[in-house]
Structure formats: structure tokens, C-alpha cells
Design goal:
By secondary structure, this protein is α/β, with parallel strands linked by helices. The protein contains eleven helices and twelve strands. The chain has a domain at about 235-323. It has helices at about 55-60, 85-95, 100-105, 110-120, 125-140, 155-170, 185-205, 215-220, 240-245, 250-255, 295-300, and strands at about 5-15, 25-40, 45, 70-75, 75-80, 95, 175-180, 205-210, 225-230, 230-235, 305-310, 315. β7, α7 and β8 form a beta-alpha-beta unit. It binds adenosine-5'-triphosphate (ATP) and magnesium ion (MG). Magnesium ion (MG) binds near residues 54 and 55.
Length: about 325
């Protein structure tokens, strides 16, 4: 297997001062020293509470936002060293679908024009783009008569299918899906997830799927990456991480999610205390320490480095749980 997305010590800090002449500089460490990779054909789910840095990480991978440290390699190409030609290829190879179906599409354009647009931008001749628009609509199992529709004439689930169709138009290798089903009701969510799974299998795609819904992640992904305030606290195979979480935060997250799997219902629950802290000007030590009941003095002094606790399973904690 080869890594389609490889993050090495990735960092994205936002710096801003309180006023124009203020010397009070603030730093938001939205993504802080994160390393993991997504192998070819794999589905990795990225979870974490609101504000933990998931979208920021995705934006850096999509080169919509510049990293402030570390490296991102996409299919072996280092983003920082990519030539224009490399970037052009990367933009074809990586597609994105956002949460809000409406924001994925232009309200004044027909479905056909919306799907054709990225192809036209990449120099695909109009006739070919039109043909492909019909084909990708077939792939997301929508009738071609919707090509002439406008977004306001469609339901949330249909809009999300079209957003996925548009993402497929340039035959990408990688799809980044940022909360692709959060705005949909549960029955439609399941249809979209199944569609994504079918497409992944048929086309051997690689997915990085972001959500705060653990049941979605457990259903769809091969591996889970858990973020907490800009840090990757745990990464590993889905079953391992879901059933034997090693980080107290992961366990807290798993226990907070409604349990759909009957095998896990009897398990003792870990209830997390307090709010997720602030990302601004954080001190030393583990970011989860203020909420962690296992935290000792070392956790408040030093940041735990990720350690390997199983095959492809890493945890950044001085006191990994024995579950
Ligand atoms: N352009 C920016 N300038 C300054 N701070 C930013 C910027 N973009 C994001 N942030 C901050 O980075 C942190 C992470 O935000 P991000 O949107 O990545 O979180 P998230 O995990 O995607 O949350 P959600 O689940 O709510 O979508 C937040 O504290 C946010 O305020
Ligand atoms: Mg987000």
C-alpha cells in the first residue's frame, strides 16, 4: 500500500493581534504537529468536537490554506514543492464535498452547468463535459432529467448527490468529505453513506471523511483519527479505536455517542467533565489534561508524544487506558 495523503508534523497556526497597534499577539494553534497517513483505497474518518481543527486540516490538504509547518504529501507529491503542473494534477486528483448541500452549488446555475464547471475550468471540451455530466449523474443514481433543475428545486439529499457527482466529474483519486451527511435526516444520511461506500469500492477511491458523528465513522471508515484542540490524540483501525479506545478523550467521545451497536451497550461509561478549552495561547502540557481524570503532574507539564499501542494504532497519552 502507498500513502495517498501523508501528513508529517503538520501545523497550521493562525496569528492575529487584538488591535492594529496592539503588541498582544494571539496564536490559534488550530492544527498542531499532526502526523498520519491515508493509504490508497482506505477510508479514514476524522472526528473531534467543534473547533478541534478538522476543517482547517482539510483546507490545508486541499491547498485552500497554507500550512505554517510540517509537510503534506499527496500521492507522493510534496505540496510545498509542487510545480504548477503538479498543482493542476492535484486539483484533479482531490475532490471535496462540504456539509451544506446548498453551499456546494451555485443557486443560479442548473445542475448541468454546476457539474460541468470544474471540467470547463480544467480545459475539458464542452461537449465532452456535457456527456460526462450525464454519466456522473448516473453514477450517483439520479435521473438525467435533473440536469436542467436548479438547486432550489431539489431536496437536501438530492443536492448532496449532485455535489458528489460534481466531485466525481474529474475522476479524482481522493475525496475529502467535510460533514457530508450532517445536514441530512437520518434515512437520507444512510443512503448517501451507502452511495459513498459503493463509489469508493467501484472506483478504488481514497476518502478522508470528517464528521462529529461517531456512528457515521464507525459505519463507513477503516481507520479513525481523533482530534482534540488541534492535536491528534488517537489514530488506528476503526474497530480497535471504537471498542478499545486508549485515549481518555476517545473513550469519552465514544461513550457520549448514542450506542447503536448492541454488543457495546453494557460498557461502563466515561463522562467527560467541563468544556473543551480554548485554542488561544495555550500553555504547556496535554490539552485534554484539564478535563481528564487520569491526569498527573507530567500531563500538565509536557505534551505527550504519540506512542504505538498496536498495529497501526497510536495514542498521544501518558496514561493510555487498558480496555
Ligand atoms: N481563518 C481563520 N482565522 C483565525 N482562526 C481560525 C480561522 N479558521 C479557523 N480558525 C480557528 O481554528 C479553530 C479550528 O476551526 P475548524 O473550523 O478547523 O474546526 P472544526 O473542527 O472544523 O469545527 P466544526 O466541527 O465546528 O466544523 C477554531 O478555533 C477556529 O476559530
Ligand atoms: Mg468544520
Amino acid at each position: 500500500m502507498s500513502a495517498m495523503i501523508q501528513l508529517n508534523h503538520l501545523q497550521k497556526h493562525f496569528k492575529f493581534s487584538k488591535g492594529l497597534i496592539s503588541t498582544d499577539k494571539r496564536v490559534v494553534k488550530a492544527v498542531d504537529d499532526i502526523s498520519f497517513s491515508v493509504e490508497k483505497g482506505e477510508i479514514v474518518g476524522l472526528v473531534g468536537e467543534s473547533g478541534s481543527g478538522k476543517t482547517t486540516l482539510a483546507r490545508v490538504v486541499l491547498s485552500l490554506s497554507k500550512m505554517t509547518g510540517g509537510d503534506v504529501l499527496i500521492d507522493g507529491v510534496d505540496l510545498a514543492k509542487a510545480t504548477r503542473k503538479d498543482m493542476d494534477k492535484l486539483h484533479r486528483d482531490i475532490a471535496v464535498v462540504f456539509q451544506d448541500p446548498a453551499s456546494n452549488l451555485n443557486p443560479r446555475q442548473t445542475v448541468e452547468s454546476s457539474i460541468m464547471r470544474p471540467m470547463i475550468i480544467h480545459g475539458v471540451p464542452r461537449a465532452e463535459a456535457r456527456k460526462k455530466a450525464g454519466e456522473v449523474l448516473d453514477m450517483v443514481k439520479m435521473d438525467r432529467r435533473y440536469l436542467d433543475s436548479y438547486p432550489h428545486q431539489l431536496s437536501g439529499g438530492q443536492l448532496q448527490r449532485i455535489a458528489i457527482a460534481r466531485a466525481l466529474a474529474l475522476s479524482p483519486k481522493i475525496m475529502i468529505l467535510d460533514e457530508p451527511t450532517s445536514a441530512l435526516d437520518v434515512s437520507v444520511q444512510a443512503q448517501i453513506l451507502n452511495l459513498l461506500l459503493d463509489l469508493q469500492e467501484e472506483m478504488g477511491l481514497t476518502y478522508l471523511i470528517i464528521t462529529h458523528d461517531l456512528n457515521v465513522i464507525k459505519y463507513i471508515s477503516d481507520k479513525i483519527a481523533v482530534m482534540y484542540l488541534g492535536k491528534l490524540v488517537e489514530f488506528g483501525p476503526t474497530e480497535e479505536v471504537a471498542e478499545h479506545p486508549k485515549h481518555p478523550y476517545t473513550k469519552g467521545l465514544m461513550d457520549a455517542a448514542p450506542i447503536l451497536d448492541p454488543r457495546l451497550r453494557g460498557r461502563k461509561k466515561e463522562i467527560m467533565q467541563g468544556d473543551a478549552g480554548s485554542l488561544i495561547n495555550m500553555g504547556a502540557g496535554c490539552r485534554f489534561a484539564p478535563r481528564c481524570r487520569y491526569a498527573g503532574p507530567e500531563c500538565r507539564e509536557r505534551d505527550p508524544e504519540p506512542v504505538t499501542v498496536g498495529e497501526d494504532h497510536q495514542v498521544a497519552c501518558f496514561h493510555p487506558l487498558e480496555i
